[in-house]
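Journal club prep, notes for RB
We'll compare a predicted complex against what the paper describes. Inputs for the flavin-adenine dinucleotide case:
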Amino acid sequence: MKQDQNIYIIGAGLSGLIAAYELEQAGFSPVILEASDGVGGRVRTDEFKGFLLDRGFQVLLTAYPEAQRYLDYEGLNLKKFNPGAVILKPGTAFSIHDPFRAPSKLLSMALSPVGSLKDKLKIFKLTQMLKSKRIEEIFEEESITTADFLRSFGFSDQIIENFFKPFFKGIFLENGLETSSRMFKFVFKMFSLGHAAVPEKGMQQIAEQLKGKLTKTQIRLNTPVKTIEGSQISLLSGDQIHADRIIIATRPDKLLPQLKGQFKPYRKVINLYFALSHSFIAQPMIALVPDDQFLINNLVFMTDVSKAYSQNGKALLSVSITKEVKDMDKLFSLVAIELEAITKIKAEHFEHIKTYVIDEALPQVEDLSYQLPATNTKVYDGVFLAGDYLLNGSINAAMTAGRKSAEAVILSIQPTY
Ligand SMILES: Cc1cc2nc3c(=O)[nH]c(=O)nc-3n(C[C@H](O)[C@H](O)[C@H](O)COP(=O)(O)OP(=O)(O)OC[C@H]3O[C@@H](n4cnc5c(N)ncnc54)[C@H](O)[C@@H]3O)c2cc1C
């Protein structure tokens, strides 16, 4: 029976879980080998001191085509962010409402100091332009840096510094807007077609929902793989496994020595959580700190988005830093001082809950793409790749790559599939 094949997937991130799901649909019963103690990979949530803490601030964009394909949004009880952002500067705060799609709001925005009226009209033009383009077209367009694209589109330095830079720094996790204009346009389009959202009980619910759909897959947690040679998997424990097919659903350079040195380092982010008696934003909105002197790039009260993030009545503030931090020992107190400067709330009122330093947050992909021919996932006979790094750093890409790798495995067993 072809369905008796021993298929192993390395990694229970979103990509590995989707690969398992697709293999199950074709009648296979794969085994996932996962190094950590849970599913989700980079999409994990911890319960800590009466709070739900996502390991790094991240959101699901509801317009992602792959997320729509695989996730039951109602089951996740998605909690949406208000579109736009609050801009925080010492002594002043203003909002940019729904820049991604609501032309009706342009008039009220015309009075906000985020940019000029011309900028606001340009935003409208950009939204319309991207709405009329298919995602595939966007990824076929010339790739320049996001910074160059924004300038060539005619946006002023004022709106770039106040809005685009801090907003997209928080998404791309780099400070110069060097990320490809293709990714900028894709993300902008996703924001204009849907919402940013989190599952009521934390981002990991996305992975838990996918895991819940698996009925024939065995998931072996705490099982790190050391190397792969031919069709042989060596576990860190010393055990050896023979596999008919292997999907490596994580970056493969540590497992396949022949691929060493082929990838750029990941982008990093630092995420600090604070508790406070109440939210000073008081709406489900991302707040940006555009001033380059500050370490803080963006912040959000998770409890304004979903009350379930706190079980103890306190408000939960998530702060993200994309800058290089030299002195980690002083980080918490520096951030508290910055929060005081922005909000006038005394630094001692910000109760530090936890800090996550995420060294491997987003892959730096040379040629950002959207589609992946199944055959491109094959490394050699029997061994296939999945993971976001094959396309672009996003939940959507991780899911696409998982689906495509499963397709390639199935085709290698049943060429008529
Ligand atoms: C802080 C942060 C913010 C983000 N923000 C967003 C966002 O807002 N929107 C968005 O779309 N995307 C965002 N992303 C990106 C998104 O989370 C990833 O693109 C996606 O989760 C990648 O999934 P993956 O399955 O490809 O990889 P991973 O999630 O990295 O999964 C790989 C799995 O393989 C396991 N593994 C690794 N090595 C081994 C081994 N040797 N043996 C066994 N198992 C192994 C790992 O433990 C892990 O579980 C963010 C990521 C981070 C970290």
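Talking point for the session: The chain has 13 helices and 21 strands.
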